[in-house]
Every structure is written in C-alpha cells, then in structure tokens.
Design goal:
The chain has seven helices and 13 strands. It folds into three domains: about 1-50, DnaJ domain (Helix Hairpins), CATH 1.10.287.110; about 60-95 and about 105-170, Sandwich (HSP40/DNAj peptide-binding domain); about 175-255, Sandwich (HSP40/DNAj peptide-binding domain), CATH 2.60.260.20. Helix 2 (about 15-30) packs antiparallel against helix 3 (about 35-50). The N and C termini lie far apart (about 70 Å). The radius of gyration is 25 Å and the shape is elongated. The protein is α+β, with helices and mostly antiparallel strands.
C-alpha cells in the first residue's frame, strides 16, 4: 500500500500537510458519517506511519541497514541504537564478562508507536527484530490504556536472561483528544438547538453509540460528560468522555425565526431599560 497515495499527498509533504489530509479523509470515510470502514482503516494506517518520523523514515527507506524492529506484515522498521550501558540503561546491552564472571544481562530497547484506538483496546502486535543473533519474531502485548512515554519490560522474549524494553508512543486521533485518562471531542451544534434542546448520536472510542441529550437553553461551548467512556486505566477503571458543544449558525434561517428573535430582543431590551 502506498501511504502517500492513500492520503493524497506528495512524498515531500510536511507534517501539517499530512495531518490536514488525514483529518479531511478521516471525516469523509468515517463509518459514522456514512463512509467506507475499510477506507477509514487504510487512512488511519497511513497516518500512523507518516505522522511518526521514525516510521516514516523507515517506510521511505525500507532497505536501510542496521538492526531494528518491524511490524511483521507491514514492514515498518524501527532502527534503534544498540549501545553499551548498565543493565538498567536505555539502550541494547551485549557485554560479556571476563573469564570466571557471569555475562551481564542483555537488554534490548526500541520505540513503538500505536494508535489511540489500539491503546484503548490493547491486544497483540507481532514485531520482528533482526540482530547479530538472528531474526526474532515476537508477539508483543499492548497494555490497555498505555500512554506515550510509558515503558514496558518483557523478560526472556529475546532469549534466556534477556530483557526487552518497549518505549510506547500513542499517535493522535482525528476525533478524540486525550488528556490523562479522559477523552475530549467536539460536536458542532446549531445555536437554535442549544436554545430549544436537541438529541444527537455519538459514537465512543469503543464503538458504542449513545444518544446524547442537550437541554434547552444550553450555553454555547458547554461540555457534556459521559462517565466511564474514556480510556482504560491500569487499575481496571475508565476515564470519562467529554463532548464540547461548538455553536454554529444554520446555513439557512427562515425569516419567521429571525422576526421572532428580533421581537424577543426588543422585549428583552425594553424590560432591562425600565
């Protein structure tokens, strides 16, 4: 799959151009908007790669040398620097002890990017590591609720006595902004619906569709809280989902509505000037 063609951008496109293209296509193909789910998945996959500098570099140069991790089927290589360090250091260690001493522990470390939706569901991801010891295929467990900067240690995956440390990075999503364990989304709503009240459908990150009620006389930019529909936590609970009601003017407002608003405004002005 040509990720640049999927997003409709040039290979020299900058981050801002890629993000803009992603948001436009994600809105177009999102299943909630009547789009094609398979196309939506392709757009998300392309953005997950091209928005990450390391993944993009390896995608552009798939035959670059060096040791590295890759998603088995997708061929994303993560070139990592293997340096000597102490057993609890931040890079690959491969130091043999002197005669009569036990070899020090082998520590492998690599960055690994997942989408926000992957961070929500967790699950398995196969990765491939090519080293001087040969190729290793590993089933990596993605913890539910994992956050950017979180490090997970896997013992014995690279061989007896070895340690694999994964530095997780969670990529941005087109519809959900994450702050801690909470999620934030924006919903455009007519100012008339804010006045008279309204109901709309909202699909959570889990895929659950909810009917959200907006009370009459709701102020613009009000946030509606959906308890327990945010990100999973390491303690087994869930954060909350917040929806920001973004007021917009309808494309067309009937003259009768405008006249009624004018009459109300005149009456309200008169009352305040008495």
């Amino acid at each position: 799959m040509d990720y640049y063609s999927v997003l409709g951008v040039d290979k020299n496109a900058d981050d801002a151009t890629i993000k803009k293209a992603f948001k436009r296509l994600a809105m177009k193909h999102h299943p909630d908007k009547g789009g094609n789910e398979e196309e939506f998945k392709k757009v998300n996959e392309a953005y997950a790669t091209l928005s990450d500098p390391q993944k993009r570099s390896q995608y552009d140069n798939p035959h670059a040398g060096g040791f590295g991790f890759s998603h088995g089927a997708q061929g994303f290589d993560f070139n990592d620097i293997f340096r000597n360090s102490d057993p609890f250091g931040s890079h690959f260690e491969h130091i043999f002890g002197q005669r009569g001493q036990q070899p020090r522990q082998q520590v492998f470390r690599t960055p690994f990017s997942v989408s926000l939706r992957q961070a929500y569901t967790g699950g398995k991801q196969q990765i491939q590591l090519d080293t001087h010891m040969g190729r290793k295929i590993i089933d990596l467990s993605i913890p539910k609720g994992v956050k950017t900067g979180q490090q997970i240690r896997y013992d014995g995956t690279m061989g007896p006595g070895s340690v694999l440390v994964i530095d997780f990075h969670v990529t941005q999503d087109a519809f959900f902004d994450r702050k801690g364990d909470h999620l934030y989304s924006k919903h455009n709503i007519s100012v008339l619906d804010l006045i008279v009240g309204h109901k709309f459908k909202f699909t959570t990150i889990s895929g659950t569709q909810l009917e959200v009620k907006v009370k009459e006389r709701t102020a613009p930019n009000t946030q509606i809280k959906l308890s327990g529909y945010g990100m999973p936590t390491m303690q087994g609970s869930y954060g909350d989902q917040y929806i920001l009601l973004n007021p917009i003017l309808p494309a067309k407002i009937e003259s009768e509505i405008v006249d009624s608003i004018k009459k109300y405004k005149d009456i309200d002005t008169f009352k305040h000037n008495k």
